[in-house]
Design a protein that fits this description.
Arc Repressor Mutant, subunit A; 49% helix; 19% strand; alpha+beta; two-stranded antiparallel sheet; 192 residues; disordered N terminus; three-stranded antiparallel sheet
Length: 192
């Protein structure tokens, strides 16, 4: 589970261990009862009234049970907090490509408008090279562009012009044309 707690702060919680009756019920109950016995025994030194001792025993048992369960639940999860930049918070654009009897799903890790620009350029026969799409003032970092290109190739939208010479670039497949048209007509994803 990832929960965004601030614009640039994210928190990830993962279970430390699986739940079990022993660790989630028997151990806290035993600890609560032991705490109640100790406190009630000490109180019995000054208080001789059995009803008051029973009330102390019940109150301490309930309080200890509540505190131990709260503490145990906090210990059951590993919480990681980390700072991200806005680009890391963007959700990937999900694209489904239907080819006959199969459906491939591509997750494109970039802003919708940049993916739209890439799709429009590809459909208009413009080059899909790192030189044209990465660097200062351009929409993608090299890492982002390579991830997007790899995902589009994996999904069958693009293919290498020459498998043995990747420097020759990529071309759009027939199925890819339809998928890129989908990108152009799809509404932008919400920003939350």
């Amino acid at each position: 589970m990832i929960r965004i707690t601030d614009k640039n702060l994210q928190e990830r919680q993962t279970p430390t261990r699986p739940s079990s009756i022993e660790s989630d019920v028997i151990v806290p109950a035993s600890q609560a009862l032991f705490s109640a016995i100790v406190v009630t025994s000490l109180a019995a030194i000054w208080i001789r009234e059995p009803t008051a001792l029973a009330a102390i025993f019940a109150a301490v048992t309930a309080a200890a049970w509540f505190l131990l369960l709260t503490d145990t639940r906090r210990l059951l999860r590993t919480v990681e907090r980390y700072i991200t930049d806005a680009a890391q918070q963007q959700r990937p654009l999900r694209l489904e490509i239907n080819t006959g009897n199969t459906t491939k799903i591509a997750h494109l890790p970039a802003d919708h408008r940049h993916i739209r620009a890439l799709a429009e350029a590809a459909l208009n026969g413009k080059p899909l090279t790192e030189r044209h799409w990465t660097g200062s003032g351009k929409p993608f970092t090299k890492r982002e562009f390579r991830e997007i290109r790899a995902e589009l190739i994996r999904a069958g939208i693009l293919r290498w012009r020459n498998q043995n010479a990747p420097a020759q670039g990529v071309i759009v497949t027939e199925a890819g044309r339809e998928a890129l048209q989908q990108i152009l007509t799809a509404p932008p994803q919400s920003e939350h």
